Amino acid sequence: METIMQEKHTPGPWAVTHHGEWIIGRSPDIGECLVAKTDGPEWRENARLIAAAPELLDLLKIAVARVEIANAEGNDILSAWLTDAQNAIAKATGETL
Fold first, then answer.
1. Residues contacting 59, CB < 8 A, separation 6+
2. DSSP letter at 12?
3. Using one digit for the tens of pLDDT, what is the confidence trace for 15-28?
4. 16-42 burial, b for 16+ CB within 10 Å, e for fewer?
5. 3 vs 6: CA distance, rounded Å
6. Torsions phi, psi for 71 (to 5 deg)
7. CA–CA separation, 38 vs 45, rounded Å?
8. What does the alpha-carbon distance between residue 86 and residue 80 come to, in Å, rounded to a whole number?
9. pLDDT of residue 41
10. What are the distances in angstroms from CA 17 to CA 9, 11, 25, 30, 78?
11. pTM recorded for the entire structure
């Protein structure tokens, strides 16, 4: 039986504000909230990357599930990728493997 974990972060989508440096999320519990503020010479790039994080995490989780099914025979390359991807998910969610 598959269990769906409740995310601990503000759910996506997140967006960069018109001022550019603020990343805003929308939480069903509290409405619009500040997720992060970026500054420095790369603030635009950092803001876009941070704003994309929830979607990237969701897509990586889907990819892991699909590769796990496709890797039933234990391909070494896929197995190594799965380990790396699962470690990235654990790092992003604060979970331990």
1. none
2. S
3. 877 666 778 887 77
4. beeeeebbbbeeeeeeeeebbebeeee
5. 10
6. -100, 30
7. 9
8. 10
9. 84
10. 19, 17, 10, 18, 38
11. 0.76
pLDDT at position 11 over 50: yes
Whether the pLDDT of residue 4 is over 50: the answer is no
Structure tokens at 31: 């409405």
Residue type (1 letter), 62: I
Burial class of residue 8, CB neighbours in 10 A (0-12, 13-18, 19+):
exposed
Tell which wins on pLDDT, 30 or 18.
Answer: 30
Q: Calculate the dihedral angle through the C-alpha atoms of 54, 59, 61, 67, rounding to the nearest 10 degrees.
A: -170
Encoding tokens for residue 70? 């496709």
In the beta sheet, which residues pair with residue 24? 15, 34
Q: What is the mean pLDDT of residues 59-66?
A: 95
Q: Which residue has the tokens 């604060």?
A: 94
Q: Are 17 and 24 contacting, i.e. CB atoms less than 8 angstroms apart?
A: yes
Q: Token digits for 26?
A: 């929308």
